[in-house]
Amino acid sequence: MNFKRFKMPLFIVASLLFGIKTYIMYRFMFNLELENQMQEFILFINPFVTAFLIFAISVWFKKQSRQMKFIRYSALAGSLILYFNLVFYRSFNDFITAPQLFQASNMGDLGSSILTLIWVYDVLLFFDVAVIWYLSRKKPDILAVSYQKSGKVFALAMSFLLLAGNFFLAEMERPQLFTRAFDREYLVKNIGLFNYHVYDAAVHSKVKTQRVFADGNELPEITEYVDDKVKSEKKSPLHGIAEDKNVIFISLESIQSFVINNEVNGEEITPFLNSLVGDESTYYFENFYHQTEQGKTSDSEFLVENSLYPLSRGAVFFTHGQNEYHGLSEILGEEGYYSTVFHANNKSFWNRDQMYKSLGVEDFYGEAAYEVNAANSVGWGLKDKPFFDQSMKYLQSMEQPFYSKFITLTNHFPFELSEEDSSIDKYDSNSSTLNNFFPTVRYMDEAVEQFFNQLKESGLYEDSIIVLMGDHYGISENHNKAMSQYLGKDEITPYDHVQLQRVPMFIHIPGHGDGKVISKVTGQIDVKPTLLHLLGISTEDDIYFGNDMFVDDRKGYIALRNGDFISNEYISTSGICYNRDTGEPVASEEKAEEKAEDDTTTSGHNQDETPCNPIKQKVEKGLEMSDNIIYGDLFRFVDFNKTDNTKNDQ
Ligand code: GP9
Ligand code: MN
Q: Whose CA is nearest to atom 9 of ligand 1?
């Protein structure tokens, strides 16, 4: 190429190259759903707008060499940010948030999982950097610019104009984009990954500041809301049925309800769990939803312990590990229980060592409590069978009553398992993740069965209730194609996606005899009040957002952390209101007519009116209040043990 005649400055070349690369990644490597042409257009322009904004800064450098250096390092840094997000996305189907950057200690523990997320041809994603690097070194005299002040100001003005144009279109396409905190994908689609990171960092610092400014004034409103709009008034007939029994809680890694009573290659996937469905001593909740977000297992633990929602960004275990809580472990501790967690993983993972103290867990049996070697490990560490086996000695020598949580690990992405541990074959689809999932689920099922047998042999079984709960989804929407093949559907619709967020929930009460399958809509937010009631412990003075799963006067919906919800009649997701039974979108006109009849104050704006809207408002209110408790660390202002304290004062 004749560079003498080709006079395009490097900052323009770099903007184009980097913009094209970013666009290709958005379009083909991240799984961003585009609903209309406007979204397509915004997604197309935003990579170039951001690239120009960054590279155009270079014109302010006087020296050619500085200008070139700025451009090449910006290209490299930008590419790395994109790439880290891509690797993260492959695992979590989400974008990195500022709090997660402080969870770097988790990254080291990912071990083999991370290798499956880095692919050889990823190196091509740095092709533009190589070209920019080459040009900046070889042709600085041709490709650098030396603008007058007016030229520089013009470049800057152009940057901001483009950015403003982008934001304007984004705001038009998605009103209140910047005030909605729930959806990172919308942000990335509309303003690009880099602007999203800037936004995210700003929000994160705001969160940090919030605690400082909270003074407890917010509490009366929250307590009133919880008492009026959440808590059930009636006590269930099962109140106190498990009084003084040990509570053995088993957290089932990455399992989803679709495997229950289902087959793969003609084989039952979970024979043991299936035997509990319909068992006379077991309640099985078939419409029980996980409500976790980025904090995965830790979010599920947070929900169970506090009946508060986890955060929409980062893992609350990390970001707010030092808050005051009124956790299940702490409450049971006050009732004379000894509370422990068993989990054969590094104690710092998900900041558990710190957070468990805040929750009132007395002892944490982490990796160090187990004999872990190459022979008894796979994937993330100690396999579930030796895990339960080795836990028995601790459990047997424990003071009773105890509340012990067991967190399984073998059924974790990427679902590795040796041939000899696999009792069933893998599935056959284009997703190795889904294919591998089934044998590890079966392994976990067998491990749980073995544990039940050991509990029986040890004599602990009769004095305990056993809760088994799936922590969160295992198969993300990146595997929808394989999933639709497995489920025999044409596609996985947003409705199906929500239904796939159901995870198994069993409450096994040995000798009870009254067990059944319960179909009402329930979720992880309900576990704390449910267990407390089974144990006969009052929740009157507590602040929480779920309901006893055994009562009928419940708040009527389960909120997912992204603002979607499941009510008795509807499922709201992706801006669509579905009929929960049929999976059909609910026609908004119908509602519009109804609404017009009974609400004369409504004027014209009916296209957004669906029966989901009033529930949606409650969902958002609940999530917001729960968030406020966490952000403001509001429980530091609450005296949950009024009676006890009065005693102490005397
Ligand atoms: C880590 C284990 C798995 O200790 O709980 O965590 P996850 O990745 O599922 O959140
Ligand atoms: Mn998990």
A: 297
Confidence of residue 9 (pLDDT cuts 50, 70, 90): very high
Q: From CA 277, how far away is CA 530, in angstroms rounded?
A: 19
Query: 349: Cβ below 6 Å to ligand 1?
Result: yes
From CA 302, how far away is CA 235, in angstroms rounded?
24
- CA–CA separation, 557 vs 406, rounded Å? 28
Instruction: Determine how many CB atoms are found less than 10 A away from the CB of residue 569.
Output: 17
Ligand having the closest approach to the CA of 348: 1
616 lines ligand 1 (CB under 6 A): no
The set of catalytic residues is: 297
d(CA 147, CA 69): 17
Separation of 104 CA from ligand 1 center, angstroms? 14
**Rounded distance from Cα 599 to ligand 2 centre (Å):** 46
3 state SS of 609 = coil
Q: How far lies 242's CA from each of 354, 401, 511, in Å?
A: 30, 11, 11
HEC secondary structure over 541-568: CCCCCCCCCCCCCCCCEEECCCCCEEEC
200: Cβ contacts below 8 Å, ≥ 6 apart: 97, 98, 184, 313
Which of 341, 380, 416, 473 for a ligand 1 pocket mutation test, highest count of atoms within 8 Å of Cβ? 380
For 593-645, the pLDDT digits (tens) are 554 555 444 433 343 689 999 999 999 999 999 999 999 999 999 999 765 43
Q: How many angstroms does the Cα of residue 585 sit away from the middle of ligand 2?
A: 32
Class of the domain covering 219-569+611-637 = alpha beta
Nearest alpha-carbon partner for 210 in 648, 527, 596, 631? 631
The encoded tokens of residue 147 equal 């603008």
For the chain, the average pLDDT equals 90
Q: How many angstroms separate the CA atoms of 358 and 389, rounded?
A: 29
Domain extent listing, the chain: 4-209, 219-569+611-637
CB-ligand 1 contact for 290 (6 Å cutoff): no
Q: How far apart are CA 3 and CA 376, in angstroms?
A: 63
* CA–centroid distance, residue 276 to ligand 1 (Å): 25
CA atoms within 13 A on the CB side of 173: 21
Ligand 1 atom closest to Cα of residue 297? 10
Within 285-419, residue ranges assigned H as helices are 296-306, 316-319, 328-334, 352-359, 384-396
- DSSP code for 467: E
Whole-prediction pTM:
0.80
Determine the atom of ligand 1 nearest the C-alpha atom of 295: 10
Q: Starting from the CA of residue 407, give the closest ligand.
A: 1
Q: What's the gap between Cα 265 and its chain centre?
A: 30
Give the ligand with the smallest distance to the CA of 255: 2
